[in-house]
Amino acid sequence: MGEFSHKLICALRVLAVAALVVAAWNTTANAGFDEGTEAYQRGDYAVAERELRPLAEQGHAGAQNTLGAMYHNGQGMPKDYGKALEWYRKAADQGNVWAQVNLGIMYQHGTGVAADDAMAVHWFREAADRRHAPGQNAAAWLLATRATLRDSGAAVDYARRAVAANDIATYSDTLAAAYAAAGRFRDAVREERHAIAAARKAGNDTGFYEKRLVLYRRGEILTCPGGPCD
User: Fold this and answer.
1) Taking the domains of the chain in order of start, what are their residue ranges?
2) In this structure, what are the phi and psi dihedrals at residue 219, rounded to the nearest 5 degrees?
3) Cα-based angle 168, 171, 176 (whole degrees, multiple of 5)
4) Half-sphere exposure of residue 46, counting CA atoms within 13 Å on the CB side?
5) Region 1-102: CATH code
6) Are 166 and 198 within 8 A, CB to CB?
7) Angle, helix 185-201 to helix 207-217, in steps of 10 degrees
8) Which CATH architecture has domain 131-230?
9) pLDDT of 153-210, one tens digit each?
10) For residue 106, which of 88, 93, 91 has the smallest C-alpha distance?
11) pTM for this prediction
């Protein structure tokens, strides 16, 4: 056997061992993430943190997002918006759509950071462009209702995609606002009526939806803040 062939076989063996190590780590990481997620969902935050924190520190985006949510909501630990932002951003930078939406929400509402609708839209659109319905809906809402950001075409496009993915009252309400922003008031009225019907069917309050319906019937767009907004 030639020296080159021997070196090649040795290199392949090293790569094979490395691949096995990575596969084993991924299996262990996924098991830990599943256990941590299940604990989080049942409200056992001590177990959730124990399982998820090591993964988050090793770069697992899903674990980073959930750890951010625990800091954001004060679940099993004191609320710490700074740490929530830190973990959300780590996950969002890796393309985790839920973290991108969560980060956008913090910018939208000025939670732990100066309110910044433009930054909120940026992160919502990152998720929206990955076909994430909550991100599409959130981006559409701001693009339809914020005067300084208004882009009715993009708002309608995102909102229609969100409704196609999940036909719920909140998404229909956003689509109605997007239609109104585009001057399509008949479509806005129709979609707002659909939102009201869906909300009633789900047993939810329809007050804001009904106020917006009156607005669209008058041929007026919804501008937030102010008006019957969220």
Assistant:
1) 1-102, 131-230
2) 75, 35
3) 120
4) 0
5) 1.25.40.10
6) no
7) 160
8) Alpha Horseshoe (1.25)
9) 999 999 999 999 999 999 999 999 999 999 999 999 999 999 999 999 999 999 999 9
10) 88
11) 0.84
